[in-house]
Amino acid sequence: MSTSSELERALASADLAGRVVVDLSACTFLDSSALRVLVHRARAAEGAGGGVALVTTDPGILRVLEIATTDTMLPVHETIESASS
Q: Which of 4, 10, 34, 58 is the most buried (most CB within 10 A)?
């Protein structure tokens, strides 16, 4: 929650008409406020003709995405390279 505003600011400057890759590989905790930011930007990107992809292999982060069904809306990749293509 304390860093979701930083995430929101970082994603606000992203070109939503292209592919936005959010690297969560260093992330150790993901809460509902961060999920809200990711979903909001994904919807905005979809409306602009782009998309958002996530990168993580952390089992805890993957579980949070699964519980919130965010993994059905945003593709989750193991590497930045696979998310970028």
A: 34
**Side-chain half-sphere of 69: how many Cα atoms within 13 Å?**
0
Pairing mode, strands 19-23 and 76-77: unpaired
Closest CA to 64 of 54, 51, 79, 50: 54
C-alpha dihedral, 79 to 64 to 20 to 55, nearest 10°: -10
Res 31 pLDDT > 80? yes
Cα-based angle 65, 71, 73 (whole degrees, multiple of 5) = 130
Average pLDDT over residues 58-66: 97
- Predicted model pTM: 0.92
pLDDT in tens, 35-48: 999 999 999 999 99
Distance CA 68, CA 39 (A): 11
